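Let us begin with a simple case.
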Amino acid sequence: MIWALISSLALVMTVPALQPMPLDTAITVDPASGGRTFDGVGAISGGGGNSRLLYDYPEPQRGQILDYLFKPGYGAALQMLKVEIGGDTNSTDGAEHSHMHTATDLNCDRGYEWWLMEQAKARNPRIKLAALAWGAPGWLGTFWSSKTVDYHIKWLDCARSRGLTIDYMGGWNEKGYDKAWYKTFHAALRSHGYQALLVGDDGNKGWLAADDMVADPSFAAAVDVVGIHYSCGYQGTDKGKSCLNSANARSLGKPLWASETGSQDLNTGAFASTRSFNRGYIDARMTGYFNWPLIAAISPNLRWNTTGLMRAHQPWAGSYQVGKQVWAIAHTTQFTAPGWKYLDSASGYLGGNRDNGSYVSLRSGSDYSTVLETIDAVADQKVSVSVASGLKQGAVRVYATNLRSDNPADHFVRQPDVTPVAGKYSLVLRPGYVYSISTAGGQGHGTAAGKPGKPLALPYQDNFDASPVGKQARYLADMDGAFEVVPCGAGRCVRQVMSQAPIVWRNGKRNPSALIGDVSWADYTVRVDVLLEQKGFVELQGRVGSQGLAPDRVNAYFLRVTDGGAWSLLKSDTSPKLTTLASGTVGALGVNKWHKLALTFAGTSVAASIDGVKVGAVVDASYAAGQVGIAVSQTINARFDNLSVAR
């Protein structure tokens, strides 16, 4: 058994003579204890297009994934959801569409974040919604401006038009803060009738904004929640052991959040996440947590392809994986709710030593829950719990997860209930576990499973006529810029709509691009019809493999053709470096005229064709397989149609 109700006598009788007795930690769960208000545990969709392929999943698998993320008593049971306010620019592993591509444009149905928030609310009407920008369209000029305030207000207007109430708004992700902007935005929120709380500063440099708030009361009045990123460490299974504390932040009397944490694998990240949710409060009195990202619904050649709570990268197969992170989060979310109160006197480190593990206790009315973790312990730990009057004295539910086990049968397992005797009970905790003990009910473990994975079958083709106007084409994932379906003659096509360099989050100037397909595709011909609307170049990509920090750092072959007819067959790598393998000139493509591009791969042979005529062929063994992609030169509008990939 992974826990045991014991008495002191039983412990002495059952432990071998040469084995040390478990360290005993006394915990008194007292409703009179002081403590801050718990705001919830959530996750972030955005900051990288990481939910992109989820939208394209078929039912019932799509609904199952959403249940694991949001449905109470089923999986992660997330209590908050933060989404990206799309900015038509790369924000890690992709770009998300803006609701305003230009100053005169407004579309409240772009992208998939509106849909995702609606799905989350449908499963849990009490979930809190938050939003934050990573980048923004270039027509705004600079981010810290009154134009951006108005832009955010229009985004909130879109949310309201869809029946969504946004509870929290942020500034500019990890780009510092402008005190005057926060003051202006806070005033604008209230003057437009929005009660969303303003989070500042969503930075990764510690509690700097809190220091400024102490010195500037008007800035403090404009920020409702103080949120910082990775306060308990960044990446690695050893993170979360200690969290950054700030006397200035505590003194403000405002909610303190880890407004982004995570960046961890869907399975091994459970160690750091479990520590952080407990120790963030013990060390720094943080009461809200957002894991980045929500899900890894991106192709496996992208950098963060296993990072999130779940993985869902094959919508054509209906395949998905539930990560151990789901159950690590469930140990908090399925036993609490926003508004519960922490009990400071029943929160701390086992035996007073953080190496043994940690525990936090919370209550609501007469219900209470305690979450305990022994991730780094090397021996069993004993806890002796006393329940004070005012709290339920009856049976306590116990759930346990062996975080060191990769067997799903060891995750979020209900144990026999414990019944206190005269308000007291004891537990022995095994090393490497997380436990939840609670008088509250409603917990559960979802049973749905995804289908087996398989490659996207060839031949593959799409003329985009079945895709909704204003949306992204099925399986097409924007890396930079904004590619959306538009009316095109008698049918539809995909258009790159961004016509001005964006306000970037990921520094650098990059060409708009989008990827589609399977990383296992090896020998094939990819064809697409293209139309340039202005002078510049258009590009067809093949055997697209690993991508680095940005879309221009990618292993791939490119066929690039200018409006004047100059063409080049290029090899790209992650350094980034472009190598010209062949080049030449054909008749001018001009503008507003359709042309056909093709790339053929057979073993180490790479051939390029324009309007049905082979213009170049080379032998290069650098890349053996990969996706296909489309691209244009920066700020150029172009159209793409009749995409096909065949052996």
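The second case is a distinct protein. As before, the sequence precedes its structure tokens.
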Amino acid sequence: MRYVTKPIPESGIPLGGIGTGSFEIRADGKFYEWQIFNNKPWRCGGAPWEREQEEFMRPNDFFFAVRAKPEGDIPIVRILGFGAMDLELGYDPYTLPWVKGVESIEYVGEYPLATLDYLDQTLPVKVKLEAFSPFIPGEVKDSSLPVAVFVFKLSNPMDKPVEVSILACLKNPVGRFVQGRRCVNKVSKEADRVTIHMSAEGVPETHPTYGGSMALTVLDPNASFEAGLPARNQAFKRMWVDLRSDGLLESSQSEASSLEEVYGLLCSKTSLEPGEEKEMVFTLSWFFPNHIDTKGNLIGHMYENWFKDASDIAAYVASNLERLRKITGLFHETLYDTSLDYWIVDAVSAQLTTLVKSSFFTKDGVFALWEGGPGCCGLETLDVTFYGSIPIALLFPELEKRQIRLTASFQLKPDSPRYEDYVLGFPENRLALAKKALKDPRILSDPKRWKEALLEVVKETGLDPRGRIPHFFPGTFKEVDAYHMVDLMPKYALLVYRDFLWTGDESYLRELWESVKEALDNVLRTMDPAGKKLPYHYAPSGFEFMRGVLTMPMGFQTYDVWSFLGYSAYVCGIWLSALKAAEAMAKTLGDFEYAEKVKAIYQEARRNFEEMLWNGEYYSLWYDPISGVGDDGCMTDQLCGQWYANLTELPPITEKRRIISALKAVLRYNMKPDEGLINGSYPKVGVRPAMNGDMTYPNKVGMPWRVGSQPDTPWTGTEYAVASLMVQEGLVEEGLAVAKNVYDRYARVGLPWNHIECGGHYYRAMDVWALLMALEGFSYDASEARITFTPRVSENKFKAPFAANGSWGSLIQTRDGNIQRNIVKLRHGELEVRSIVLKLPAELDLSKVKVEASLAGERVETCLEAEGDGRVRVKLENAVKLSPGRDLEVVLSW
């Protein structure tokens, strides 16, 4: 027997809503990573070095099967998945050879849909499954439902009728592994459905499933059922024979209560005439309110505010299924209906899964994503949010603002628990406090006097750490881990500005404005010892640098095992963009004095940035003017600040020619065959750990440079960011090549929906949405209701999805001769538009360009203004509201 095998992907489309937990349906038809029970690693403990697991469901504990019987022929039974035997489920090639998995499955994972075509030559019917959880950007509740929907599409290719039954089987997991717990399964019948409600008695309050329930539902009021089938081999053997005989489950008991493990089963039966097609719909819903954080606080789930138990959720979904399915399908259709290459939108779709896989959405409305894992590192890791939250801000702006407000609420203040640590993080403060204690020893024993002394010290030295931004929330929202990263302050400012720009929410900006100023002023006050008006990296600035008495980190950044000293291109570039963002925010709020202040700071900071770090080809990794030591490494992410400037329509942080030169250097030195775009390299040295083993960094500091270290590896979130920056700057083919390498690399190893950095499902890679925006030349300034749509590929026939302020649709551009037609087609939500910026094929005499605009076919008065570089702004006489069916169309002719 000869087999040619290929690996089955070890990731799949997650089923579940935002903050509800999830499980995956994979290409073998089975269900994995059941993390809906408030269990580890979703709750916590998901770091690569922890690997804590609480497995309450195995892949075969939930499955579907089909029984098909052609008229006058024998019935065929197949598990809708792979597998030849399962002792608990009663089938094997010896005793029940007629119960087995299908021959093959064609799996298409295009989030939010997973489609499985079950292929088996012996099956007399065609069986196809569409599995999804409602995902409707702009609609928070309907995208946060703890439910999975399974739509089976059945068709009869034969020339005679066929009986078809679909069986759904679920083990009751409530209170799993609790000694003495009693499973309780109850069947309820409604006019349109049958539900098995699963709960348990005797579950202690400390158990993650305490007070919880699950509901297996079929939208067939005549479905047969088995309320409680014991998890025993012989019980299942009899069930299989029962199913095989007539396609029904013979049970009259509507309730089961058992001290042993039991399954609940539903079976829907129909008959298909030749050529006929039908659908059968099942749902699986869950309700587990006992979500306890790492400090023992009950935080629950947002869905508790809407539903009382799993059956209540099932009822809501059944009543609203047509709408939920239609709009979820519409989002999928909009995402994939494009002139762009398939892999581009598929890469975007794949990373949206992290939003469901890794999110918390608590009963009191706190929203955050795990950095990785899920359950790895922390929640709302701001340096990673800086990258990964781009689609959240566009698709669910309400949620994005929640997590930024959460960060702001823990900004470092004198009454913060960690304030003392960061006061004493500065040697000058430690020395000043020691001198005070010599004169007044009571400082060391009197907490009140100690606090007063700390405030006196920071007033004297000027090194007050207030205003620092927290790093992440360690599985609880009651505390943060640290304030040790110098890049967090400018990143926070840029995030606040970005969210204001994209939502137009001035009240949000006013609410956070003082915290933005405090964050930026902190850097100028405490993190610039050389007076360069730029952020400085004090040692220790990376985990490999944690030595001796220098134990209070102050100068870390997101590459936290890659120590920088002095002033780095990465952080200083972000800082320059943050200053421009602060100037724009200040002007919006009428704080003109602060606007002038940061404008002057920017001019000096940019001059110092160029003088210290530009080496004629790219920006050197870092330079420390105090010690005179520098590092001329070529960092892939060196122009991250420029990337964000482009995303938020800010002025460039440096000259165009230097941007292009630096990006070409990044490609030349850091793009590695069979690896991808690694984070950094040393062109003058020409060796690296991945080729030569462990070594030390080629600078005068002597830090270890090890195999697998951060600069010597590719981070997909960084690769996507830099790829989109390349496209933004006109290096379109180069940017697409970088992004395509990421897509192919992860597809090959079967992890397209699970990118790895610090743990799996890494949040940073969600920034691939920026690549889509770059290719579209799209932005939306909600404060001015201005759309920019200047595609960088396929300009003559372009179509791609877009999202803005919780609404979404398609952008379309066609050119035919001397006519250009642009359409903004909204598929969901509403969007205000006052102007739209477009690009003509060449610089034209504006007096010879004619413009016509219409909304839903009705003429809209406009005027035309030149923007430069072939761009024109079409200004509408009055603002218009776009909505589904009310398309904005602009026709330019010359």
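Residues 777-893 form a domain with the Immunoglobulin-like fold (CATH 2.60.40.1180). The CA atoms of residues 491 and 689 lie 31 Å apart.
Keep these points in mind for the review questions at the end of the chapter.
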